[in-house]
Amino acid sequence: MSEMTLRRAQVSDHGTIVESVREWWGDSRTPGQARELSMLLPRLFLQFFAGTSLVLEDGDGIKAFLVGFHAADNDHEAYIHFVGVAPELRGQGVGRRLYTAFFRRAAEAGRREVHAITSPLNTGAVAFHRAMGFMLEEGDREVNGLPVHGDYDGPGQHRVCFRRQIAVRP
Hints:
Layout: E1 5-8, H1 14-24, H2 31-38, H3 44-49, E2 54-58, E3 61-70, E4 77-85, H4 94-108, E5 113-118, H5 123-131, E6 135-136, E7 141-143, E8 146-148, E9 160-165
Parallel strand pairs: 4-5
Antiparallel strand pairs: 1-2, 2-3, 3-4, 5-9, 6-9, 7-8
Helix pairs in contact: 1-2
């Protein structure tokens, strides 16, 4: 594996990131489902939150990304919206590297808490968030033994909600 560089995302990364989602999730979803998943990343995320989003790349291009932002309504929260890691790099600490960099940058901006969500069926994401120190938020129901917020993303779209405290840096 060649050396990877971490950098701030740019609006110009949008097309590559969307294609990466379609390709990287193509092994576990139909092409239509992968395309639908990529629609969770409209261009506006990189137009307005590139400064808080991250890309990990090598000489061949983008290998991982994290789209996140700082809350506009308060000065203590941040949110990780979407993370992608090339399949051949999963399980090698790449996601941890992205999250750690996001935590550091959020703390430097005075943020004290990071939030994230996932589907209760995404057991890998649930395990990853727990391993990264996220706590499960209390929900209004339970799915697969997990507390979930029912209809969080619309009817039948239940989500596990996570919260993690981070240390503010001066």
